[in-house]
Amino acid sequence: MYYEKDADLGVLKGKTIAIIGYGSQGHAQAQNLRDSGLNVVIGLRPGKSWDTAKNDGFEVLSVEDAARRADVINILLPDETQPKVYSQSIEPNLKSGAAIMFSHGFNINFGQIRPTADKDIFMIAPKSPGHMVRRTYVEGFGVPALIAVEQNATGQAYEIGLAYAKGIGSTRAGVIETTFREETETDLFGEQAVLCGGTSALVKAGFETLIEAGYQPEVAYFECLHELKLIVDMMYEGGLASMRHSISNTAEYGDYVTGPRIITAETKAEMKRVLEDIQTGKFSRNFLLDQSNGAFMHATRRKEAEHPIEQVGGSLRELMHWIKK
Ligand code: NDP
Ligand code: MG
Ligand code: MG
Question: Would you say the CB of residue 103 lies under 6 angstroms from ligand 1?
């Protein structure tokens, strides 16, 4: 773990940091770095983010001009957009010895971006969405982050990376060392098997089982989707044991006897195959292929939006005044 004492902001003083993209991560990291006294310019195309960054008081440039100015450049565009923008607008304009940064390892790990040997390549990956990166910094804290160095051309990659992590507030919480490979593969696995894919499929299957048995969709929605947040919040704050301490004994007993009937040895064997598809690059190849026209993604998005859980959820959430519309 690296902390405040391991990082020296002075390494970045007098240097220009170009933040490419001003979305979830871009806006948060740029504002934190500026409040830490560092020089930040934003690289964008004309559009919504451009106007937001200007209104927030930043110097906003084309991606080409931002790349020309950069001593350190952090590419915070959507992962599938990065390779094209890198080859067309960033690479031809970068200074020799510039440091190229990411907040996710996808494009380096899967060889979609291959910077020349004279550049430092490293990642500072905050373990949080952008609005938390900003909010915790303003409150005087920070979110934990990962650091990984892929190419240390100048011999200074760690010093620059840790200074950047300090600039966004992450050394206040702690910075853990990893590799591009570990960060990318575990991130993809987690979101597919557990966080997004696994959870959505579990929620839908539970909901369908109840309505197919004749129960009211509204009641099924509460039991299988709505209450998930309460359980996840308890797991987040105190782990599994603390969640099990808070629920009823009936729920705890049901957890132990039924959990292994739902997530079986066969499920875990399938998880291993999912991980293999990530490690061999099969998943990323399929993803990038589909992104070229988005056929599967768009069709599935439409189909999923028509699921009854979405219809009933839409009406029920209207009744929940505390949920932002
Ligand atoms: P967002 O989708 O929130 O923002 C993307 C930004 O890129 C927008 O400002 C968009 O501007 C701009 N952009 C898109 N296409 C172009 C283009 N062709 N030229 C110039 N600008 C463009 O991205 P995220 O912040 O979610 O993700 C950025 C990186 O951070 C990714 O590598 C992601 O994996 C990583 N990450 C994200 C986390 C998160 O919580 N979101 C967490 C940790 C890492 P416009 O308004 O013009 O479309
Ligand atoms: Mg991810
Ligand atoms: Mg209940």
Answer: yes
